[in-house]
Model the fold of this input.
Amino acid sequence: MSHLSRRSLLLGLASLSLAAPHLAQARPLPAIHVLKDPNCGCCEAWVRILRRDGFEVTTENSLGTALIRHKMAAGIPQAMMSCHTGEIDGYAIEGHVPPADIRRLLSERPDATGLAVPDMPYGSPGMGPEDRREAYDVFLIRRDGSTEVFSRYAAA
Done:
C-alpha cells in the first residue's frame, strides 16, 4: 500500500497549478457567425484575425439594406454601426472588435446586446497596423440601447 507523502501532494498541486491556465484555454470557444459585404477587404482581415486567435468563424455575404436590417434586428444602435456584424453565443459583435474583448465578454457574460467599435478606426483589428493605430473605444451595448465604454485603446 503506497502513501501519499506531503512532498508528493505539494508537487502534484504545483503541477496542476501550472497546467490550469492551459486547461482553461483548451475549452473550445463558441463559433462566431459574421455577416459582411463580400467586397470588403477589412471584413476578411478581421475574420482572419479571429481565426488566428482560435475562434471558429463562419461567414455570410450580405449587402446594403439587408445588412442594415440585420444590424437593427440584432439591437445595434445606428451610432454604433460599422461594416460587419458577428453573432456569438447570444451576443452581437459590431465592427472591428479585438478578439480579447470578445473573450472578456464571453467570460463576464453581462446582460447586454453585445460589443461595438463604431466606424472603422485605423489600427483596429483588420484596419491597418496596430503600431500606427488611432485611439478608439470598444462599447458595450446594453439591451435598452444605451452604451458604455467596455475598453479603451490608446493611440500608438
